[in-house]
Amino acid sequence: MDIELSGNVHLVAGGREMIERVLEILGRTGIETQGNPDIFIREYLQFGIDEARDIRGRASSRAVKENSRVFIIVAAQMTADAQNALLKTLEEPGAGAVFFIIVPSPETLLETLRSRAQTVFLSDTVKEGSVNATDFLSATPAMRIEMLKPLLPKEKEERDVGAIIAFLSSLERALGQVSAEKAKAGIEAIYRARKYIADKGSLLKPLLEQVALLVPRA
Question: Which of 115, 138, 147, 163 is the most exposed place for a label (fewest CB within 10 A)?
Fold first, then answer.
């Protein structure tokens, strides 16, 4: 897939599986991707203000081998404070730094951040185990709980938080077809699930089951 990049900031929809795709693109531009000290790759369950400040500090350092440093950031969630903290760095990247920010749903990021970035689509495929929001809306509550099972494997470390957040975002978009009054309880359930999903002590299964029960059928 040939991708034409523009600017220094790129938003990529997906999760950790997109790291290799980004490295492939960099390789085609002549950048060495193996053992390169100028390529910084990190994965975060939740990217907060402290992580943003760390990236801001690293972005000001000069490249060792290349003409610029490349930051590949994978985040299941990015807080609004973190996004705001990154804005100055993204507007005027130090030492020509280039950023690839990989999140489940780039459209959920702040407009101020999205306006400074190029959104790049590297895959047209649906991640295995994802739940189709349209099918979910038309299903009964019992069917919905069955549909959620691929997102909730028994071993917690096997859970893909990025896939869950992508599903919640697509479900919220799909609810745009439902009247605001009818969708209110469902939107609130989606918000709660997305808000607490990254908390270590959160009970993810009950949060998603609330979504299954409260989101209206379409």
Answer: 115
